[in-house]
Model the fold of this input.
Amino acid sequence: MRAALRSGLEGLLHYSGAAGLYARLRSLAGATILMYHSVARPAEAAWIDPPNRMAPERFEAHLRYLRRHRRVLSLGEVVERLRNGQCCPRGSVVLTFDDGYRDNLHVAAELLARYDLPATLYLPTAYIDRGENHWADMVHAALRNVRPGNVTIAGTTFDLPRETEALRSWLHADLLPATAEARRQRLIELVAALQPEAPPRLTMNWDEVRELVGAFPRFEIGAHTVEHIDLRTHDGAAATFELEHARRRIAEELGTAPRHMSYPYGRASADSIDRVRRAGYESALISSDLPLVQPGVDCFVLPRIAAPEAVSRLALWTGGGHPYLQRALLGRSG
Ligand SMILES: [Zn+2]
Done:
């Protein structure tokens, strides 16, 4: 019965032209690097920009699936294999977290320890120095309960709450490529104009980072620049400062220099990639729609994807078939 089913499926694959794809999927080895941010309980989640958070129950469902069906490696193990020209087995996965949310200590680390899985956490060091919330969360906090009426930001007037989403989009477009100082001024202007309720502290301070690495040794700390700036628009000397100072701050606070870094927003210019190489790091993560890490890849542009919500999609993306499957189905070369 099973053999008949299998033969029927293979026939279908053959006649649909998908047999080649089937063969390719079977041979796709390599690792998938997943990006997470906050794993917040409801009280804190309300203050966090929705794209940056996942519910603890969902995150645990990810870990349960990955523990059972995939091979979770530390980033260091993957980098070591790449240096030796070795491939990672099919279904290899690396777990990473960006931005230093406090719930990584209170929620995510506990769950990772329960499933005995390693992870890397990338810190924007000035935010940790100040224990300051991510700017996207400050925007979210300012816009979550707006008073009806007009508000003028940078000379443009928005009619709230009707134009709340337009204001959010405008602020993200303005703040993402901005310098740290310009961003700070704009947030001061926003808070003065909207007078929102003060949010809780969502970002770890250094004592909490030390508590995390002390209690959960399988959590490795990496750098995520100083001010979480866009290294595609800020390269040259500004990038060198962001890369070297972040490395120095982590070494001062934790006693160990970070080996890995991730580009804020997953973006970098050729110049800033070169500066990461020279700043003493061993690897750097960039956003990519070709997420499978295979031998020959440059360790300073390792591709990474945002972890999807649904476990079914997680299964597809970490099985070596995404997005090669989509490309094949669309008839483009993989
Ligand atoms: Zn980030």
